[in-house]
Automatic annotation (TrEMBL):
Pfam families: Alpha_kinase. This is Alpha-type protein kinase domain-containing protein. Residues 12-25 have a biased composition (Pro residues). Keywords: Kinase, Serine/threonine-protein kinase, Transferase. Residues 276-288, 299-309, 338-351, 652-662 have a biased composition (Polar residues). The keyword Kinase applies. The lineage of its organism: Eukaryota, Fungi, Dikarya, Basidiomycota, Agaricomycotina. Residues 403-644 form the Alpha-type protein kinase domain. GO terms for molecular function: ATP binding; protein serine/threonine kinase activity. Residues 1-11, 251-263 have a biased composition (Low complexity). Residues 1-33, 251-318, 331-361, 647-683 are annotated as: Disordered. The keyword Cell cycle does not apply. It comes from Mycena metata. Residues 663-677 have a biased composition (Basic and acidic residues).
Amino acid sequence: MQYGPSPHAVMGPPPPPGSTGPPPQLSNGYHVPNVYPNAPNVRLPIASNSLYATSQQGGGAALMASSSGSPIGYGYTPAHGNYLQSRAQKQVLSYAPSADHRIMLEFRGVTRKPGAAAPKPLWDLYYVQDKVKVSIGAHRIKALAWEKLAPRWRVHTNDFPLTAEECHIYNKNWVEIIPKDPDINVISEQFYKANPKNPAAPIFKTGKYRVDLCIPWAIVEAFEAYQLQAAAAANANDTPSDDDPVYVERTAATSSSKTAPPSSKKRRPGRPKAPTSQASTSTRPQTRSKTRPVVNRSEAPNTTQSTANPLDAQEDEDVDYPGLEDFEQEQDKALEPSGSNHPNPTQTPSAHSRAAWAHALSQQIPPSKQEIGSLLSLTTLTVHASVAKQLTLNELLVSKPKASRGNLQSYLEGPITITLQLDLRPKSQKVGGFKMACFGQSFPPLFADNSICAKRSFYTTKGSDGVTNYLPHPTQRQSQDLMTEMLCSTWAAALLENVYDNIDRFLAAHSPGSLQTLTIPRMRFVRAAFAAEGKQLLPASSRALFLLEERIHEESEGKFRKYINNRAPIPTSFPDGANYKLTHGLAFVSDYQGGDTLLTDPQVMSDPSLGDIFATGNIPSGCQDFPAEHTCNKYCEYFKISNDFDPMPEAASSNDNGSQMIENRDRNPEPSGEERPAKRRKQ
């Protein structure tokens, strides 16, 4: 390649046909300073592509930089404007070892605190992209990582400001992945080895390559600070103002950025909302029975959500295309008879209007490939399901059932035979910390409707291709895990029910005018059932087992979210404190998560002196450190929960009216008959 003055710098190019006078002399650079009158005035369109511009080095970059700001003069046509872009594309194809060689990229969203030994993974910012060309370049890797992880960041943080330019990509050894010239084959050497028989044709072996999309620590720290402030504001029944310094600083920094993150539509960055549930708007909630019936989720309020759960994450192929649903709704409205909704199904066929006939007939279209595929992917199982009983605390304390010794009938209702239709494909599994879940239906309905969520405990294996496989535990281990989860859910539901019973008694003891107005959310844990595959020809050790639960529908319950975590435990301080006092400091419920009114996957924290009980997440320090880490919120103050956490006297725990459990701020507790271990008396 010749670098230097243009060959026509002295003589100049030949004049175009029909022109008068010689053409102007070109300078010694690469652009035309004077535009010839009869020549097309064309600019290089690729000059506006900043991503491409930054990826070029050497003569190509110099040529583009010189010509990007000046028009192309005599001797050039509009086709020349695409020369650099076309050359780069052909260059990538020519250098690629093979277009058929594909690998997998494992994307993780991480951050790294200054001075930390290793990066820290962030929440559910994780995605595996398969069928990626091994010749991929650094810019394309970063674009893919941002495309897959940015939506999850926006869901988890509720659009906390972040741009792609603020992030960097690293490999598993924390070496930054930077572009080459040309920007191809930045990671291909990891998948080729020398071929002794033919050195010119290296041997390719596919695999998985980890890419960490590093979000600056300052941004993560700012989000966590704002999250704590939002939780504190929710505790004070207030919302942070728009002049919050953390939010203003991050929003200003984002708005000043030249390149916006890829998105289908512009959205104003929002602050993370405090996790609240407005299930009740009156001061005095409705009185509930001892055994609460299953709530119709279609009647539950839909409120704003915050954090997404890994089990509820959707894959790319499940994304709805915008505008289609709106179009179908408008079409349905146009076909409906005027002045009425859908036709009355009790009418005779001759009584329906022409519009009603047109509407019904127009819906009979062939199913799509996706609809057929989802139908064929379902697995049908016949199972024997035993629904967990709704036991009160008194029933649990008096009967003292020992589930570990085979007395499971104390916790379960009689088995019924049902048919399950589940999507058990690996890509349809929603993987959490201890269990994986899939959605399906039961016939006849096991709960309020046919929809169910089927959960199983799992273990992981690595395939020969490096992909992590999630497999359900064998039957013996599975039965122990699922029954432990069911026992934990039974106790958590009874403890939460007891809190609401005491709230009802407290409100009944006070006249409506004597109390301030306070919104009290009404929530419960989902009903659950233990299900075992009913094939008689299979040995008991080979049958599939499931923990079936009511499905938490996003349409009626809002986005799946956590109401408490290790950083912001304030929203559930009231039920935690009430349960801790009620159990004499022996247990309380943690991990409140779910929708507006339905909760799932609870964890009961217990004193380590009770032994290894309940589920895997029962951390001994959780109950030991509760007195020191508990922070009262507005509900504690409203119901007068004291913060001393001394053991309750035996008489108070058996009081029928239950008022002492809540209204005990001014009570001096008498010494308990059973002293707690000294290590738990933290002040």
